[in-house]
From TrEMBL, chains A, B, C, D, E, F:
The protein's name: Allantoin racemase
PANTHER family: PROTEIN DCG1
Residues annotated as signal peptide: none
InterPro entries in the record: Asp/Glu/hydantoin_racemase, Hydantoin_racemase-like, Iso_Racemase_Enz_sf
Length: 236, 236, 236, 236, 236, 236
């Protein structure tokens, strides 16, 4: 099985780290490929950047569809996932929806800790699309995505503080990391908090592999029916 | 006051008709300009086309921001509206949110009749973002947007039939037209049904003018804070 | 266009100030008339006073319907609005629903700051009728409506404090003033907070004008069908 | 214990029949008194009539508070109940909320069959205030309240037909009679349908007696704090 | 009328106190019997213990059905209530649902104070089944049920502190005691707080008596149809 | 990895078929074991049978915990899953929650087709616990579980009919099979309908394997903290 993980920003380093996080949990017979758009934004921290990033996700899904059994979109907020479902032949899983579902399976209530603060609305959009407002709160640390470029363990204290607030004030029983590129934070944060810490790319890999093994793909019945002729969007 | 109405598809004819519908309800001292992206899709009937159209909305909002007091986005589903709010200096109103709000002011329950059928999910997304599921149902007629190119009165019977089903089965008391380019259907449909028929571009014009007169613009506090440097997305 | 603004309490001074706030945002060709019931309550701060005030709203809507193109009801909680819709020939807009809708157009989340504290339930009733619990919180300052009689700028500090709590604790991005008669607070509060401050009477004027220009009135299909013969309720 | 049942319309005959329905289920040591306003409307079939009726409910609650341990408001839609809670010394129970609660105790899903059709919004208001949309649908038969003046058994067939539709199409397992004055319909309808048929006045009596025996009254903490000086509203 | 109150744990002392609380509010012609399972758990503080307790509730309902007109299940979380409805000939009322309904009748917002902390999810399950999330918060004090064995007045201070937090932070206007066996706390807590304090067993008695007087039982239409042959579950 | 699939009824044949369905989608390095309780009910078609079945699930989870890395509970309605989470060392996944999550990943709206009709409430309980009412309807065919004993392909026509109703009337885009033991229906039903058909045991296997690979287990923070000493429940 070939699983393509699309990082919607243009960072090589983040793409490599995200693909690594995916490969770490994928079964041995799954070949993980990490890709990013040919142009666009260095990070997705606004609705405007989401527009550019979604065009990039579409570009990559079209480019790799013939050789991919399934896609994971590695952007918290699941930018471009609905569109990718129309274009990809196999299943497409967003890291946000996957993380929230995994959290439901291990905790009664949980909290997303996303970044930066202004993107809380992006997380809330997915929480509400799934109907999970009664089980999930959204918190944020005000760190730009750029700070994750070379790893995220330097953010441990920041995440511990916000997560502890979630455990105490929101009755959270698990924490969802609200950004791709935080896989190296899972173990130390879990050690500090003593509750499950959920990384969405890893969760999405599990679900994409599961769907593939069930031979399930996106329904073509209506909302995600194939789109015959779509013009390119170009990046300068 | 200069009000720019962005049609997110590339049809000159539809843009002209949409701008006409906007101008028809705008106060005399409001100058209405209709624009469309420099490239993209002939119609927005899928999530993938929404991605392209949103890039086009961004392009036009950036191009006209310096000379516009407010924007209306004329696409049912409000594609690109959140992003436009970050980029525009003045308020931005989507035709879908405006139509649903106007419907709330004249009816207890109401129904969107959108087109084509596969886009019901786009309408439902806005209905849910506003929390109006308890008052609004979404129905569709399976007509491609292309059929509206030169007017929509030939669709009267189709809309009458679906709207009557809404009045009888959904207890609807008003009908929201679920696509731009249907302004010429308002009067004949209203005459047939005897209930308010709401056209979203017109509704959005009223709300954009109202916000402007109150000197209200998008909050920069968090979710829609300005986005400093956004790369272009190009259309071939 | 003649727009009649009904203040449901019996204060001449508040009626004058509310009508002034309405006129300030109305287009030049709109003639704004402020009225209040012939009897009733000096302020609406309880459900019982709402009953009296609603009778007063009905009285005034019946008295002025022949000469009014549209009505605005200037009571936070939208007391009597549903009844007024059955009786008025033109559209009727409540200041609460209008304020919440305007807030949706400029902010992802927002907070009503109402007064006095015991009336939070009245605001929450409208928030829930519109389905906006996921975007709107309700806070209060414990000031009686009587304190607004001769202006509200002396309440600036109180509103700043409660609004700051909303921005920090509720992730609000805009503030809705939860009472009529606070129009003079909009500018200083906005200056202090740096986020949009929304006054409902002004918002309702914009929406009523917009509906009128679209020639939209209340649906007579079912819930708001005309009421043929309604007895008077008298004020001693 | 003295329990006062307020019929908010001015029909002597309906008041007598409603009080009889209440007395039939009240324990022996409960003295049931039926009252109606000194003026107002012959029936409550619109929001405008609700305004008048609510004034009448207030009038009667004030008149009988000194001699009543609890009140039941016998109007589907619970007109005036919130206001009555502020004015009455003892607990106040609306027939609609009581009927919905009783239905929850005997059925997973259920349906209100109200009358006339235009009042569905009134039932839905209470359903939503209680949060029961997921368990309760609202249907209507288009019969004016006046037709209940001298009994309702002639409506049996009409109610059987609408109730059967509820059982089949809405998965209802019980039926709530959506109007006062239908007590004589309970037994024949139950016999026809084979499912519980719930009459709200009877349900409200049980709950008012229960609250009284627990010595529970309306909280004065905030929303329903006492209202010191309320002017009269007069009926001509 | 014979009313059987099932305490789902095996404590004789708690059963006696719960039956006493029920008898204290029951009308004179109601004979209250308190029972507990022949085996099982000393307290119900987890989902696993709920499984055992539900088996015990079923055992007792089957054992006493022939001689009972109605049942009250005295476990916060309403463990086994749905199953008991299928097995009992008369109505079955859970203490949690009854307490929440009673709270709705006397307060706009209210708070459950349950124990121990880990059981908040059990309370929330019932709050959500009734749709009351918008009016009810759930708090907890971290006291094991065993501490209630010989009365609960020693917990007064703990409950006062948590309840005061609810009144201030959650805008609660009444408090629901989230465990059986707290009846002796009602009066002192109410005296301290000045708001209604609701004990669920007492509330359930009132509702069970009310249903019985209306001759209402569980609907057999679908979800709670009778279960013909159910094997015993044994306790060692 | 050892994955234990618990069938909560006592049928050897169904257990074998369920384990087979699980093994068919499990990766090669996953050893699937199918078990059922030592006593209890032949099928779970009522809330009362759920009580017995939950005791059986607990029995089996305790018996196999030492040798299992994860559990799947193969009962539509997820009977006993919350309790099993407290008792199992590794993750526990219910087939219902897993099926609904998988459906969310491949369709905008979908429908559960469960059996028999009386168990719709059990499916709705899980739909609501996940907050998916806006995307998922529940339908039923009135077939007893016993009819699945030796396979389910004879039910193809029945399922096709109900599923077609879902596609047309509920706008469903995928179908969830609402019972264990229907794995042999997936392919023929999918062939007939042309939309994804989701079998919950297979979906649960994918998610359990995914959680295991992420080394995620149930949070012990509060709701699902370990339960120290739980008495046995015996089956005669």
């Amino acid at each position: 099985m070939r699983l393509t993980v699309v990082n919607p920003n243009v960072s090589d380093e983040l793409t490599r780290r995200i693909a690594g996080a995916a490969a770490a949990v994928a079964p041995q017979d799954v070949d993980v490929l990490g890709v990013h758009p040919s142009g666009g934004v260095p990070s997705v921290e606004s609705h405007a950047e989401e527009v550019v990033a979604a065009a990039g996700v579409l570009e990559q899904v079209r480019a790799h569809d013939a050789t991919s059994d399934a896609f994971v979109v590695a952007c918290f907020g699941d930018t471009g996932v609905a569109a990718a479902r129309e274009v990809a032949s196999g299943p497409v899983v967003g890291m946000t929806e996957a993380a929230l579902m995994a959290a439901c399976l291990v905790a009664h209530r949980f909290t997303v800790v996303t970044l930066p603060t202004r993107t809380r609305a992006h997380s809330e959009r997915v929480v509400r699309a799934l109907g999970l407002e009664h089980r999930c709160t959204v918190r944020a640390v005000d760190v730009p995505v750029a700070h994750l470029e070379s790893g995220s363990t330097h953010l441990l204290e920041t995440f511990v503080a916000e997560s502890r607030a979630a455990l105490e004030l929101d009755a959270a029983e698990a924490v969802v990391l609200g950004c791709a590129g935080l896989a190296d934070l899972v173990d130390p944060l879990q050690a500090e908090l003593g509750v499950p810490v959920i990384e969405g790319v890893a969760a999405a890999v599990g679900m994409a592999v599961g769907l593939h093994r069930m031979r399930l793909g996106t329904s073509r019945a209506s909302s995600f029916a194939a789109v015959p002729a779509l013009p390119e969007v170009l990046f300068p």
